[in-house]
Amino acid sequence: MKPLIEIGMTHWYHLKGQRSLPFRNDLDPINIAKLLGHSCLIRVINDGEDFEYKIIGSGIQAISRSGQTGKKISEIESQKKPSDIYDLFSTVVRAKIPQFKTIKYIGTDVRVQSVEVAVFPFTSKDAGGNVTDLWSIVEANSYRPED
User: Fold this and answer.
1) Which residue, 7, 33, 42, 111, has fewest beta-carbon neighbours within 10 Å?
2) What is the CB neighbour count within 10 angstroms for residue 147?
3) Hey, where are the domains in the chain?
4) What is the CATH code of the structural domain delimited by 3-142?
5) Helices (DSSP H) in 58-117: which residue ranges?
6) pTM (two decimals)
7) Name one Pfam family in it (predicted).
8) Beta bridge partners of 128
9) Cβ atoms 35, 4 nearer than 8 A
10) C-alpha to C-alpha distance for 140 and 123, rounded to whole angstroms
11) 123 and 24 in contact (C-beta within 8 Å)?
12) 3-class secondary structure, 53
């Protein structure tokens, strides 16, 4: 497991404690400063029928198409259903547990081969235990040039 994803997983379990899911307002940027550039905050729409990118960290933006903040994945050709991202997000919503996946990179940065993606579910106090938000951490796997 990639180092930042491992830190994120430890933090999510700390926030969760004895509850089935942590609350979204428990996720404080001050406590995850090292992870912010590799983090996305995603709103779950209609119990996982769609997802909206609320915040995308600068490290993710650097290797992604621009202009995805505020967009639903149904509006992004490479991520709408069916896709690895849609399936990953949907699985987290249904299972209510973190999921991890290596996804083939389809962007334009020739240094990136694939990305490791971790997705953590959150709820809100008035959601009856349903997943309302996802926190994702993305770390790139780079090609190593031959000497």
Assistant:
1) 33
2) 3
3) 3-142
4) 3.30.450.20
5) 58-61, 84-95
6) 0.94
7) PAS_5
8) none
9) yes
10) 27
11) yes
12) strand
